Amino acid sequence: MEFNSSQAALRIRRVQLLCVESGLDGVLFVPGVDGRFSVCNQAMGYLFAGRSNRDTIDVVKLDDQLENAVVLITPTEVKLHVPDAEMREQLQALLVPHVTSFRILGPTITEAADPDLLEENKLASFVHMLRGCRRLGVPCNLAPPPSPSSASALGHQHAQKGSPASNGAASPQSAAPKLGAEQLLALEQWPLLQAYGLEGVGRSGFFTMNFQVYDVQPYMQLLYGNLDGRSLEVLVSEAVPTLRQHWDEMLQALGGKAAGQRSGLSERQVAEPLSGFFAYGLLRAVNGVEQSVTLPPRVIFGPRSSEDSARSEALPLARCGPRPPNTDSPAAEAPLHMVVEAADPRSPLRVARTYFLARGHVVKDVFADPDEEAEEGYSFDVATAGWRGPSEEVVMMMRTYTALVEAARASMSHFATVEGATALSAKAVALEVLSRSAEQLGVSGVLGAGGGGGSPLASRLRFILIQMDHVNRVTAPAVRGSRQLKILRLSLPDIAVRSSAGSKLLGGLVYGDTFLEIPPSYTSSEGEAAGTGVWSGKAGGSGWRLLVLTEGVPSLEAIPAGGCEEQLAARALRSLSRVVEGGAGAAASLRTAALASQRDFERRAAAAAAESQALAARLRERRLGTPSTAEGAGDVEDLEDNDAEAEEEAVAAAAAAAASAPASLPLEAMGRLLTLGGGDEAVLLTGAPSCPALSGTLYCFSAGLVFVEAVSRALWVLDLRGGVGEGLEAVTMQQLPFQQQPAARRDPRVVAEPAATPVATSRGLGEAVVFRGTTPACGLPPVCHLTSNTHVALPLEAMSPAARRFLIQSVLPAWNQTCREAATAATESRSETHRSPVSYFKDMDAPNPFPAALHRAHTFAIQSSAAGGAVKTWSAIVADDDAVRSAIEGLDAEELRGLMSGLDPSVEALLLQPPLPGAAATAAPGGAVTLVVGLPGADQVSVAAAIASMLEEEVGPPGVALLPPAGERLREEHFEVALERATAMQLSSRRQQQPHLVIATSSYLGLMEQLRMLAAAAVGGAAGRWRLAAVVVCVSDDVSYEEPGRSAIAGGLLAQLLPGFVDCVVVGGSNTAKVSELSESLSHRLPEVPQVRSSRTQLLRARAELLPPRADRATRLSSQRAMSAREAWAPIAAAPSAAAATGGLLGPLCATRVVFEGSLDVALLRDALVPLGIPQDPRKAPRLPLGDKDEDWDRRTPVVAANTDNSSSSLVCVSGCVRLSQGAGVSELQGSRQVALRVKEWPLRGDIPLVMGSLGLPANGKAPGGELLFVGSGPTLESERLRALLERCGTSANSAAASVSAAADVVATAAQLTAAQRAAIRAAHLWDPLPEGYCFNGTQYFDAFGDASLEHPYMARFISEWWSDQRAKEVAREAQRESERGAVRVVRVSSTIRL
């Protein structure tokens, strides 16, 4: 029972609905020590751990890492800070498949290793989450409690519609009261909120000075009290089985006592398992929550059961019975019944039953020793003297109770399945069915005449139909359709018998169940049958259904206690024990002999079975048609004789082993004991609705069977030879198929078809031995008093494989032989008083002898058997597993069809509008639109180019619009202009084909917002009527994370991946391994949406995925499954205008567009972007800013002036379209925090018309230049900084550096100088000063030793200086030349725009 993603998403959606209705910017949850262990822990357990029912108000101990988390739920997004990496992965796996949009923040590896940095990161994440908020809801339980009147009104309307303000009776703020001054001071004591008031943290001032705070705990309590799929799953998986376990312990406390000791038990002793369980569940009190004690558990014997307020006492059972009429004697008779009521302390589960302390049936002990009884002085007649009166009384009460059970079930069915049903109409149905059933059972005189509202029965019947919340509090009279459990309790007090001696009060009868009405289920087939775009459920669907949670508790039990039946049962059980113990040795010997000749025995048994089946077939043929001639009649007589002889020969082999068995067993009673050990566990199926099955232990004898009922330990003996009861007609080995119940009489409690379990695989209950009697239920008590059906079935599926095999191979052949011997004896005696012998057949085609209404109860009895029952997921629920699963899913699905539906009529019209006929489509302006969306840098242009290439052959070159233009924030006007231009292009070209426009958007806005914008322009707009051909979402691993070092998903990414809206996903990226991981994650979120890789080859091969056929797409979008997905995924509210501005982790995400001219050096730009975070080193991720300086987030003020801290300044991505050199082709530049800047070929060909979105290239068409879009936050986006950045990255700077390097590479040696250069240098320095000791004569230079030289002594220095001067001049000349032909000149820098 794992808390799944869809359940978590639905619970989050409920909180988002509160934000929308109450006008809150978000609801903040601060669990653990940072929230002073407030009720936020309970809310976190409810939202992210799947806590339900009473668990939501207990002192919730969360996972240690979840206690350190902080959560903010806004109307459109969920923001979480989770310090632990493992917990982040778990939450991401929980939320990704179904939550529309969320962001999980956490520390880097470095921050996680430093406690101080870890706390700083938590505080910074908290500041980031609150950016842009003004009105916050916090579950703190600090607001004063509402008045009782307003609280009840609020709870009533919430129960009706699932929302506090659904019927307009109260304002949404009634569920979220605003905190006063004292409450705000208490809230400021939370450590995390205190830290927000520190200098430099968040906004200026304390937390409660910056935010209006509302206490949403009353609303959360309403959520806890309403059932959803998860709550129901917890109930059926944990609460109901636990309650059933303690109920069985209660039965064991009474029935488990040895017969003769039960009369000494008191009410408290019997009720102790139930009362102790209830008391233990109330031990943990919760501050601020007062749990009501409604319908507590109790056990009441006898006459006091008429008092609804009576509590269990310590009097022994023997003293709790009715008093004899007209006598003052304190002695009391043994009570005939008891009322048992149980309650789950942690949920509204309640159940009430009336059980009987007698079976109304006594028989002699067939295994008794007459001599031993004579020695004891025991007489059966004496022991049962005076029992006829109590026997008639208990039978009368059983039948009256059966009528009450049928009335209760009919009332629940009416309330759950009939439109407009109320408690009054349910009571009227109960009265009608009670009166009718009592008349059929012959006890109408006990109840009084009539069933109408003014009849005596109406005033006598106590009818309670209430609904309760998770704290066992009655919230309102039961309202059909509310999301709370309903409890129906019917009681008939003061049942009395009248005689000549007076009236004797027996007590009251009580029956109660807990149930829930399940909304209609809508299957895809229904949706398709209703037609395109039609929600079939709106017109009726499959109808409401009933799920009874406590139906698995036995409706009726009869446990002999306190009367002669208890003594007789004790004697019979002791006698049976002696027989079983005494026959164990002989039976073991018989089993050993049988195993020794197993093959021979199986052959004989198979032959006997085959002959028996052939006999049954012949008998059916005779029943179907009788020969009309004498010759034919003679053939039938011969056939019958042959059949008899063949059958005698067939069973002779089976009887041989029995004939050779020792005669030590009491053959005069039931023949030989065939069952070994302590018997075989088995189930008996009956035709009584109030007691459809009995479980117990089966002992097989050669002449019949003995069944020991599991609870009462009472015996039922069935003799195949006559004897006891003498009410058996036939034994049939057959299948028990399911019969189709007529629609008008179908049981509405059956909420779904039976599942394909091993029991029901063949649409039946499998093989069974069916006993047909002459009396109801073959005399099986207490069923024989409650039905007219004469059959009892022993299903083999409920037995262990060994017992089943032994029954078929050994027991059935022995029974067949016994029936044949009895028939022979009857023929020989030819006595008129001798009853007809029992027939034995094997007829696998025989019909099921039980009505279809009991098939479900019979299936549950078989599946619940300990020996051979099939594995059942919800073992304590009678309803089939598929039915329970359908109910769990149906609750959530129905809620999504209500106020939490995110469907937008305009978007639905855009998605579902059918294409115009050919002639109309050509004449009317408009056409088809393919929408390609994605984050900036996600390869939208490549996808748009591929789609345009596909469409070119059909409709000519399609128009392409790149939105938003000029780096603006995407707006509705952009779609309108694009469609208008495409329409104008269509009219001017006069093409016959309907045009097709491909719109590629680059934005952080969610898909729903973009579809709303497109729908406003395309459906009924001035641009004509455009239909949506496909929605393609581009996802690139290169831009999927805003902060790779923190694994922070880019804002808006998940909001663009909405099932039910998307036709195809294009997945790309530069890292193959990461792309594969991304593709797997997308498969979990969009399991049925095809994926295509972003390479051009793969795109061109994916025409069917990118452009699905019209008919197929229309069928898929209009199917019920797609509609349900859109309801669950579409945001409840449109994203506010400033929502995306809060997305950047280092500040509001903004964009600046730069247009330039000149040759751009990509390598220089790539190096220059590295310090700005493109790409980002995960180990050096910038620390999140603690301050929230951008307080005027809703005003269009310059961004760069708001934050001058360079540490919180960074780029997220860079993209653009450029021409790198003179006459070169157009290239696309892309870089992000995950990959360095790279160059790709521009995918759009020049002949494809660009309807909207210029490339920003120089006007002459050949000069280098282009435009770049910088996305990020902080002062990095200042125009002067970007201008300087690009001017440093022109090819001129690179060429000048190369010139300097070339000049520096000149070899500085004298040998490289020419003669002219040396002569020029010598002439220039001819008369320069000489070193000491040198002289010059005008031609030569002489040193002190008289050596002569033609060159100056400092000639080497003169040459070096000359070389340096020449290099400097060359560098200057080259720089001048490059600046003239390759410098980058920034033409325009647009103003910074918030995304």
Automatic annotation (TrEMBL):
Residues 163-174 have a biased composition (Polar residues). Residues 3-140, 185-224 form the DAAF9 N-terminal domain. Residues 634-645 have a biased composition (Acidic residues). Residues 228-517 form the DAAF9 pita-bread-like domain. Residues 144-174, 303-331, 620-645 are annotated as: Disordered. This is Cilia- and flagella-associated protein 61 N-terminal domain-containing protein. It comes from Volvox africanus.
